[in-house]
Design a protein that fits this description.
The chain is α+β, with helices and mostly antiparallel strands. It has helices at about 5-25, 40-55, 75-85, 95-105, 110-120, 235-255, 260-275, 280-310, 315-340, 355-360, 370-380, and strands at about 125-130, 145-150, 155-160, 170-175, 190-195, 200-205, 215-225, 230. It has a domain at about 5-125: Acyl-CoA dehydrogenase/oxidase, N-terminal domain (Butyryl-Coa Dehydrogenase, subunit A, domain 1, Orthogonal Bundle).
Length: about 400
């Protein structure tokens, strides 16, 4: 299908999106008991995603044979623009739809896509990403979780950590070591793992903001079909790099499009309520945040334009991710200064929203790769600066003392 739409087609599709969003994008009622595991947020998201599927608005650019709509990237752009004017109902699908879905669509076999894509698109099944380990965070290639071939199956043993939403996910996209006799980047493969398989244990990690969104996951003799290999054997590092690019685009660009400055708008409203809007220093800092968020939106729009042109996300996605984190940090500091003591001490069980938001924002500098990693990527892959020397580059993994290896 051509990406070109006539003005009439654009107007009709835009009106269709608005009508759907008016009815279904009504926000989430999070009052009442806390939701530390994100169960209610996911429930809202699944209801919304099911309605999207029934309205033929889910998976706009994915082929119809796999549960999508077979429409154009122009349709996707229009949807994102309109969605940006409504409450985000699909935040809990950032990983499922922003990272796992495009990887399955790009690298999966016909059988894998026929098996998994439709339920992913509809939100009936939830997916997570399983990369980090206790000794392999920023240096993911030092991972020690291993997958060994046993006839028609792969047997997985090891541990993953910081796995977002593993507790509510049906499947995980995991990378594991399949050859320890080659350098660490060369002996990794990617697999699809059902999280209800025998031998999978999921434990919550208690966060500083009161949530339990993250998990550590243990694999003990977990057997999966040989057909669950995603992509080529021992090409997992290239696959992981591609998925991380999708992740940074998903985190940095979000589910919406257009120029947005939500944090600035919220804080401008608070400054007005508190009678501080005429303070010149406050106005200057609010304007700076407004400009920073506007700039981040423009970077996101450029990234989305590259995707619309058919380009796989590149290292430039790290720029949007880093800008978003810097904006979050600036907004956090400004909100605490503006709100004052009420941001750290409050009366009643319903208070503390600003404090929780500040604490939650701390994860931004880690999720999808730390700020330091983003700067390294921008430096050597975008700006072409010399890379750091890696003395382990050509050393077989089983000869390295990396991660938690001690023997």
């Amino acid at each position: 299908m051509s990406d070109t739409m006539s003005p009439t087609e654009i107007d009709e599709f835009r009106a269709r999106c608005r009508a759907f969003l008016d009815e279904h994008a009504t926000g989430m009622n999070m009052s009442g008991d806390p939701d530390p595991r994100g169960s209610r947020r996911l429930e809202y998201g699944q209801i919304f995603q099911k309605a999207m599927t029934e309205a033929s608005l889910a998976g706009l650019t994915y082929p119809k044979e796999y549960g999508g709509q077979g429409l154009t990237k122009e349709h996707e752009r229009i949807w994102r623009e309109e969605y940006g004017n409504y409450p985000n109902m699909t935040f809990e699908f950032t990983i499922s739809h922003g990272m796992c879905l495009p990887m399955l669509a790009e690298y999966g076999t016909h059988e894998q896509k026929a098996t998994y894509l439709a339920d992913n698109i509809s939100g009936e099944k939830v997916w997570c990403q399983m990369f980090s380990e206790p000794g392999a965070g920023s240096d993911v290639a030092s991972l020690q979780t291993k997958a060994e071939r046993d006839g028609d199956t792969w047997v997985i043993n090891g541990q993953k950590v910081w796995t977002t939403l593993a507790h509510v996910s049906n499947y995980g996209v995991i990378i594991a070591r399949t050859d320890a006799n080659v350098p660490k980047h060369a002996g990794i493969s990617m697999f699809i793992v059902p999280l209800d398989a025998p031998g999978v244990e999921i434990r919550p990690i208690h966060q500083i903001d009161g949530g339990k969104h993250f998990n550590e996951v243990f694999f003990t003799d977990v057997s999966i079909p040989a057909d669950n290999l995603l992509g080529d054997l021992n090409n997992g590092w290239n696959m992981a790099t591609a998925m991380l690019m999708y992740e940074r685009v998903a985190i940095g660009s979000g589910a919406v499009s257009g120029v947005r400055h939500e944090r600035a708008d919220q804080l401008i409203e608070q400054a007005q309520k508190l009678g501080k809007i005429e303070d010149l220093v406050v106005r200057d800092r609010l304007m700076k945040l407004y400009i920073m968020e506007t700039t981040a939106s423009l970077v996101s729009m450029r990234t989305r334009a590259e995707l619309k042109a058919g380009k796989t996300p590149g290292p430039g996605g790290s720029l949007g991710k880093l800008i978003g984190t810097n904006n979050m940090n600036f907004a956090r500091d400004l909100s605490l200064e503006l709100i004052g003591p009420g941001s750290v001490a409050w009366d009643g069980e319903s208070g503390g929203g600003w404090a929780r938001a500040a604490l939650t924002g701390l994860q931004g500098g880690i999720a999808g790769g730390t700020n330091e990693i983003q700067r390294n990527i921008i430096g050597d892959r975008v700006l072409g600066l010399p890379r750091d020397i890696d003395v382990s580059k050509n050393v077989p993994f089983n000869e390295l003392k990396v991660g938690t290896q001690r023997d």
